[in-house]
Design a protein that fits this description.
0% strand, mainly alpha, single chain, Arc Repressor Mutant, subunit A
């Protein structure tokens, strides 16, 4: 009986698995797992339309696999972050990391030197992802004024950063 079902529906189950899992080997493994699961699940359910029921079983299995993989990735990433925090200390940073920290400090320093309206426009536009219209509304100024503040702020930041880096 199971061999007949396998022969008849294996390609359909494989197709669904491939669509969800997007990997041939994982899909082949999933087909085997699903047909093993089918033995116990078929006895527990009153199945009226086998093909539809098998599709739902397959889809749910694949979604659980995807969820499981995402959970594993989150745990691994969490471990990597904790491991990096443990391994790296502020005293011994890689030169690239030191450069990024120095650039970040320089940018913050230059932001503080901007005129208040320029600083506010930069913060709203770049850090809070507001559009010109939203910034104009919140600051109660014209959109053209917002564009002008942003353009002047970017120019002033560039000049300030170039002075800090000694490139100008």
């Amino acid at each position: 009986m199971l061999g007949t079902l396998y022969a008849r529906y294996m390609h359909l189950v494989y197709g669904v698995c491939l669509r969800y899992l997007k990997n041939r080997e994982d899909s082949k493994d999933a087909v085997m797992q699903i047909f093993e699961k089918l033995i116990t699940d078929a006895q527990q359910h009153d199945i009226k339309h086998f093909k539809s029921w098998l599709y739902v079983l397959t889809k749910n299995y694949c979604l659980m696999q995807i969820r499981s993989q995402k959970s594993k990735v989150r745990r691994i990433n969490s471990w990597k972050i904790e491991h990096v925090k443990f391994v790296e200390s502020d005293i011994e940073l890689h030169p690239i990391d030191r450069d990024e920290i120095d650039q970040d400090k320089a940018l913050r320093n230059c932001l503080e030197k901007l005129k208040p309206e320029q600083k506010k426009c930069i913060q709203l536009f770049y850090f809070e992802n507001k559009c010109y219209q939203d910034i104009a509304y919140s600051l109660k100024v014209d959109e053209k004024k917002v564009k002008s503040h942003l353009q002047n702020a970017k120019r002033n930041l560039k000049i300030c950063l170039e002075k800090k880096n000694g490139t100008k």
